[in-house]
């Protein structure tokens, strides 16, 4: 039996006896040990049982905080428990789904306490929205003979979308297909509009999320950190760092698995039921939430967050909820013009599309200047269809919240 298993068994036994102080100490030791296990070698090679054990240890540790006497702790015991559970959810992934039940109970307790206690930490999840950073101007290059403006179509039928765009590997901007999403603010009297930062803070402000720090994952100064969504909004959205300081970005995160309440504000587009790889299309009349194998990720950040030129292997619908983004796309047939990074990042280009670094392209990457491309600005309520292996570069023009849907 592994040492970690012994610790978990003893922690669980102590919890059964209501010996929560001892249970917490044992669970904390297990958390530290299993954390080290999870960070040995490649993440994909980690035995799922360790992720399962980590979730169990986090649940025991979080619950121990709820049993601390008031005079032995402070008002942040519930907040600490939430942070521990979020760490468990982030690291355990699908092996930690049982943590949602415990999380829901704690969040409900915090919400209930905050309605009657003005000093409760939950009150801090409301933010004062001042002046948001100004929007940036897109550097459109429509006068270039290599540039084609992205076509916009109004909510095409499934047949039209598949025949005209999916089977042709042709990107397109789709309008008028997201109006019923509560996140867009056109329903429910706008109460669930994601442009309302107070709403986001109320629903998810105390939750811990992974934040990318730096201009791009290709840069040496790029890193990742964990912080509450409220802190991210305060430090990177409302009060962004100085021009030379690194930008924070909540990027490509399975936020809606972590916080199901936000998942209720969006819907899987019907287009995700379609396939061009030989499998039968899903019946679009079925509940869109039942479409299998759709990977849903959140992208939330201040102006000038960048996704460097890269491609993904799956079908992709990038749905813009708040703010606008400049987008540029290159067909996969021009991959040899885009100078992929050697090695495991071969789906990413070495080329700097915009900014000071782009001045060196003529010398370093001359064939890039010969590649035709599509470009446009993706606005609120619009979806961008990105075909598989279609290279794309994206830069936010203002405070932006997008949701991507990937499927085969």
UniProtKB/TrEMBL annotation:
One of its GO terms (molecular function) is dioxygenase activity. It comes from Aphanomyces invadans. Residues 112-131 are annotated as: Disordered. PANTHER family: HYPOXIA-INDUCIBLE FACTOR 1 ALPHA INHIBITOR-RELATED, HYPOXIA-INDUCIBLE FACTOR 1-ALPHA INHIBITOR. This is JmjC domain-containing protein. It is found in: Nucleus. The keyword Iron applies. Its main location: nucleus. The keyword Cytoplasm does not apply. Its cofactor is Fe(2+). Signal peptide: none annotated.
């Amino acid at each position: 039996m592994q040492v970690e298993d012994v610790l978990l068994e003893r922690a669980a036994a102590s919890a059964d006896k209501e010996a929560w102080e001892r249970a917490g100490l044992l669970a904390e030791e297990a958390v530290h040990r299993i954390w080290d296990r999870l960070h040995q070698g490649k993440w994909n090679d980690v035995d799922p049982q360790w992720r399962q054990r980590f979730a169990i240890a986090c649940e025991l540790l979080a619950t121990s905080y709820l049993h601390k006497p008031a005079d032995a702790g402070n008002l942040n015991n519930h907040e600490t428990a939430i942070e521990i559970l979020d760490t468990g959810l982030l690291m355990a992934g699908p092996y930690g789904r049982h943590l949602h039940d415990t999380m829901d109970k704690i969040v409900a307790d915090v919400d209930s306490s905050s309605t009657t206690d003005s000093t409760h930490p939950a009150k801090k999840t409301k933010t004062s929205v001042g002046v948001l950073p100004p929007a940036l101007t897109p550097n459109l290059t429509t006068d270039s003979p290599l540039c084609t403006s992205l076509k916009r179509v109004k909510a095409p039928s499934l047949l039209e979308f598949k025949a005209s765009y999916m089977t042709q590997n042709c990107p397109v901007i789709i309008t008028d297909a997201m109006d019923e999403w509560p996140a867009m603010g056109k329903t429910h009297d706008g109460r669930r509009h994601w442009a309302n930062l107070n709403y986001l803070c109320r629903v998810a402000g105390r939750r811990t999320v992974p934040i990318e720090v730096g201009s791009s994952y290709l840069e040496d100064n790029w890193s990742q950190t964990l912080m509450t969504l409220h802190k991210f909004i305060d430090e990177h959205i409302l009060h962004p760092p100085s021009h030379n300081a690194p930008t924070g970005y909540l990027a490509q995160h399975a936020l809606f698995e972590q916080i199901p309440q936000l998942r209720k504000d969006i819907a899987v587009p019907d287009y995700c039921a379609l396939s061009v790889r030989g499998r039968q299309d899903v019946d679009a009349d079925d509940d869109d939430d039942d479409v299998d194998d759709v990977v849903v990720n959140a992208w939330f950040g201040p102006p000038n967050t960048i996704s460097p030129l890269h491609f993904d292997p799956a079908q992709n619908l990038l749905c813009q909820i708040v703010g606008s983004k400049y987008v540029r796309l290159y067909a996969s047939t021009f991959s040899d013009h885009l100078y992929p990074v050697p090695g495991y990042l071969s789906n990413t280009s070495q080329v700097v599309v915009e900014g000071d670094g782009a001045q060196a392209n003529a010398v370093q990457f001359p064939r890039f200047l010969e590649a035709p491309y599509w470009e446009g600005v993706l606005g609120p309520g619009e979806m961008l269809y990105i075909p598989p292996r279609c290279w794309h570069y994206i830069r936010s023009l203002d405070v932006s919240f997008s949701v991507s849907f990937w499927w085969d």
